[in-house]
Amino acid sequence: MNSDRYQRHSLIDWFSQASVKTSRFAIVGCGAVGNEVAKNLALLGAGHMDLYDFDSIEVHNLTRSVLFREGDVGRFKADVAAERVKELDPNINVSAFVGDFWEEMSLDQAASYSCIICCVDNFEARIRLNQLCLITKTNLINTGIDSRFSQVEVFPFKSSDDSACYECNLPNSAYERMQQRYSCGWLKKISFVEKKIPTTIITSSLTGALAASNALEMLKDVPRVESKRMLVDSFSGKSTISTVEKSCTCPGCSSLGLSVSILKGGELVQGVFNLPSMSSDDCFITSDPILVSTRCTHCQPSIGAATIVFEKASKYDSSVNTCELCGEESVEVVIRDSISLSDLERVFQGGKLPCKYITFGYAGQVFVIEMER
Ligand SMILES: [Zn+2]
Ligand SMILES: [Zn+2]
């Protein structure tokens, strides 16, 4: 490490270059806010940064993305952001993950980060990242912007088992908005276009600064234990800071409890059959809704004639409802997010579950089994 580079930081009494240098950050979403957070952490001298994004750069991203240039249009956001971060500070160990973080980030990987900064633009991805952080007890910072306000939420899962999570006070309207993407159950609507929130670099840069500053706070010897939410009005400068209260009915954290054990490998699912006092009616919760079967009520009138699919429902959209044989919209789909041990053995012959992980309670503990990729 070139210490001259960080000479000014060394004059700051609250700043520890050594702890920033040994930290590992993940930035999920490399759009407007992700760009700002990556730029800030790079200039602060972060040691390691992993950048996740499935998307590629479009020309309208250029008004809000400090790391992107006109010649980058069409390239993957994560790749370009990683290259530019490396230019800002060649000492950084930076990796780009092009794809959905849900597929790309293993639980081990999530657990390895000092802090994950969520810079996505939709509730569903935030909820999923919140789940990964809860399970692995990884610090999470969530960000949100519009054309005027900047919001940053801090969830110190590493330092406290009892802090509120992202879903603890999430309003019903968020779940309603999420459901608008789907037809019935968990099949995506064909050609659904999500309403985009207009933003400018002003709120993106303000949010990126607050997120990076709170990421540094997470590294301190005595980190915060309460979750907090900051809302800043970029017009007036007024800010509201509130403690996020834990909700005992939260769909995100209430089912996990204090003790979570992570087990590896799909074959372990078989082993669970042999645990004493596990009954065949006991259910696994699957991390992803599974499209179990389809049946056209015209062409396959008998319930027993259903076609077994057993794949992630997210791979399908509502076109599944239309029968390939008769062309009618008469296909019934069965989508489940929990499977009993007996069903797994009987119907699916103990096959590999098409999901990221499963959770189940046993002997007062919650077990998470991560499926092999
Ligand atoms: Zn919660
Ligand atoms: Zn049919």
CATH topology name of the largest domain, in short, is Rossmann fold
Query: What is the level 1 CATH name of the largest domain?
Result: Alpha Beta
Count every beta strand, where a strand is a DSSP E run of 2 or more residues. Answer: 14
Cα Rg: 23 Å
How many domains, in number, for the residues? 2
Strand order in space, largest sheet: 3-2-1-4-5-6-7-8
N to C succession of SSEs: HEHEHEHHEHEEHHEEEHEEEHEE
Shape: globular
Oligomer classification: single chain
Kindly report how far apart the N and C termini lie: 36 Å
* Biggest sheet statistics: 8 strands, mixed
Q: What small molecules does the structure contain?
A: zinc ion
What portion of residues is helical?
Answer: 10-25%
Description:
The protein is an alpha/beta fold and 373 residues long. The chain folds into two domains: 9-243, 3-Layer(aba) Sandwich (Rossmann fold), CATH 3.40.50; 260-370, no CATH class. It is built from ten helices and 14 strands. The protein has helices at residues 17-21, 32-44, 77-88, 101-104, 107-111, 123-136, 172-179, 201-217, 268-272, 341-346, and strands at 24-28, 48-53, 93-98, 115-118, 140-145, 149-155, 228-233, 239-243, 260-264, 283-296, 307-312, 331-340, 357-362, 365-370. Strands 3-2-1-4-5-6-7-8 form an eight-stranded mixed β-sheet, with helices on both faces. Strands 9, 10, 11, 12, 13 and 14 form a six-stranded mixed β-sheet that branches. The longest helix has 17 residues, at 201-217. The radius of gyration is 23 Å and the shape is globular. The two termini are 36 Å apart.
